[in-house]
Specification:
Structural class: alpha+beta
Number of helices: 12
Shape: elongated
Low-confidence stretches: 25-42, 104-108, 414-443
Number of strands: 31
Largest sheet: 9 strands, antiparallel
Radius of gyration: 37 Å
Length: 596
């Protein structure tokens, strides 16, 4: 009886356990199925390559670059808008990125700011001519910029006409008692050719013809143009030099339409310049152009400056302030010139959208008047916006790396695929999986002189030395090349940049290049050098895109550099030689663009 009870009890327990295992598991499984969102997640899942994180595809497969299996990409749960991107605190500190909150300009202070340049005073300009024809035997003033004084010998000329006139003088001199009128007429003829009484008397006393005659300056000033060469044949009255008297110069300012009503001839204008930051020069408005420049929508406002101490040089940038005006400054915002990046057609700034995090986005802006170190923003910013004022090109490089809108990439978007071709920094996929890069905006360079390009080319050549040293794992040579960059930057003459926007862009780029080169030259740790080389490359790419260096270059990219964040560099060869890893991964990387 007891045994039966035990058997029955065991059977019940086993039955209950089996039922739970069968039905409980099934029920639980059904519950999970009812709440499983895996399909929904999978529908939005993107796949990337661990070696090439720029690759993004909507389904799993092989990397089109290296053939590795694609892995699930992290979901974009950073809460950022499509055109926003984030930078790390380390990158912010390394590039010394600084921001400023912008607001309205000097509202209510009745000060009108104007920007302009120094020009030679055309009223005191003169053209030195020759008063007799002949062949130039020798020039004594051979270059522009030389100072000459009235009476200074400028050239020596052989003149057949003067030879004949001297012979007439000697003949008339022997007949001056019997034919005084003839003698007087011959002397007057020589005087019309600007020969002095002393010269005429010397010819007469010597009793022989003088073959070569000097040309003397009739005015004092600085030679601004040399118009002849030795051996040239010149006619009577032909110009030899243009000479400017720089004792007074013009300060010419640009004023916009909405500022015209505030301007009057005779107003006091206070002039300042970067060359003499602590000095203010008072002048009077002497001329307001009656014609409006239809291209720039500005008029010329002129003031005359005393320049007896030779402080002002033609071409120098100046700023003028006129007090007591009633300029309408409502809704006008000013930003430092270092905040603005200019591509030729567009002006852009980078705005920090989150005050507590390093989140940025690019904004196109409409520039107004340039006031020395600041720009007036007519459209694109609002009061209280926080803009990048230092390290702007580094932020732009970060935007390009993350596939966001940038100075040279108006559309944004990362390169999706590439297959044995040149991967563009901007563009769309074509049917054959090769990216076609749209260079139309990249070619919008700032026009600069060949001389400036040649000076920039020397900086670029030194940059290539740094790159090659890092490729060869040679920290000492990289250090030396960094020092060469610093010296070459000192030899770049900013005075060759006549365009103010070009001037401001180069000042920003030069500062960044110099900082990176200093860091490289100050270290023998090749890993640190490579960290600074990333920033050096970003600014070197910007300078080549904006100004050109008269040679074709390749923009190359390593996706694994900088802890898999990726980094660019420039090369003269299409073949990949990776400066971020050297011999360890010499051929890792790809060509992203070709700049012609």
């Amino acid at each position: 009886m007891k045994k039966n009870i035990i058997y029955i009890g065991v059977a019940v327990v086993l039955g209950l356990l089996a039922g739970y295992l069968i039905f409980g598991t099934s029920s639980e499984g059904n519950t999970k199925d009812e709440h499983d969102h895996s399909e929904e997640i999978a529908s939005n899942q993107m796949w990337t390559c661990s070696m090439h994180p720029q690759i993004m595809q909507p389904e799993p497969g092989d990397c089109p670059i290296c053939g590795m299996d694609l892995i699930p990409a992290e979901a974009g749960a950073d809460g950022l808008m499509a055109d926003q991107f984030k930078m790390t605190d380390n990158a912010m500190a390394l590039a010394n990125i600084q921001t400023s909150i912008v607001g309205q300009g000097e509202i209510g202070n009745n000060i009108l700011k104007l920007s302009g340049k120094i020009k030679a005073n055309e009223e005191s300009n003169a053209v030195q001519v020759t008063y007799f024809g002949g062949r130039i035997e020798q020039l004594y003033v051979n270059s522009t910029g030389e100072r000459v004084g009235a009476g200074q010998r400028l050239a020596t000329i052989y003149s057949p006409d003067l030879v004949a006139a001297q012979q007439e003088l000697l003949t008339a001199s022997s007949l001056k008692e019997s034919q005084p009128e003839l003698y007087k007429a011959v002397r007057n003829k020589l005087k019309l050719w600007k020969l002095s009484e002393k010269q005429i008397n010397a010819i007469e006393s010597a009793g022989k013809v003088q073959e070569y005659f000097p040309v003397f300056a009739t005015v004092s000033g600085t030679v601004t143009m040399k118009m002849v060469e030795e051996g040239d044949y010149v006619k009577q009255g032909q110009p030899l030099y243009k000479i400017a008297n720089l004792n007074t110069v013009w300060a010419e300012f640009d004023a916009y339409e909405n500022q015209i009503a505030s301007l009057k001839v005779g107003q006091t204008i206070k002039v300042t310049t970067n060359a003499y930051r602590n000095e203010v020069f008072d002048a009077k408005v002497s001329f307001i152009d009656p014609l409006l420049n239809s291209a720039t929508r500005t008029i010329v406002v002129r003031a005359v400056l005393n320049n007896k101490n030779d402080l002002f040089k033609p071409g120098m940038f100046v700023e003028g302030k006129i007090e007591g005006t009633q300029e309408n400054t409502t809704n006008k915002i000013t930003v430092p010139a270092t905040a603005v990046m200019w591509t030729g057609e567009r002006s852009v700034v980078y705005v920090k959208t989150n005050p507590n995090e390093a989140v940025f986005e690019m904004r196109e802006v409409l520039l107004g008047n340039a006031n020395g170190d600041t720009y007036t923003i007519l459209e694109g910013l609002e009061n209280g916006d926080e803009v990048v004022t230092n390290g702007t090109f580094t932020v732009d490089a970060a935007a390009q790396l993350q596939g966001k809108k940038s100075m040279m990439n108006t559309a944004g978007g990362k390169t999706m695929t590439g297959h044995e071709g040149h991967l563009g920094m901007q563009g769309n996929n074509t049917g054959d999986n090769v990216v076609n890069t749209d260079h139309s905006e990249m070619k919008e360079r700032i026009a600069v002189s060949k001389k400036f390009q040649n000076q920039l080319k020397q900086v670029f050549d030194d940059y290539i030395l740094v790159k090659d040293a890092l490729v060869n794992d040679d920290a000492k040579s990289a250090q030396q090349a960094g020092k060469q960059i610093i010296q070459s930057l000192k030899n770049v003459d900013m005075k060759l940049l006549s365009d103010e926007k070009a001037h401001n862009h180069w000042m920003t780029i030069q500062k960044e290049l110099n900082a990176s080169a200093n860091a490289i030259s100050g270290s023998t740790d090749i890993s640190k050098q490579r960290g600074h080389f990333k920033h050096l490359s970003a600014h070197m790419i910007s300078s080549v895109q904006l100004f050109g260096v008269n040679t074709n270059v390749y923009i190359q990219f390593c996706p694994m550099a900088d802890n898999n964040k990726g980094a660019y560099w420039i090369s003269l060869e299409e073949e990949i030689r990776n400066p971020y890893y050297g011999e360890a991964m010499l051929t890792c990387g790809e060509v992203r663009d070709t700049l012609e």
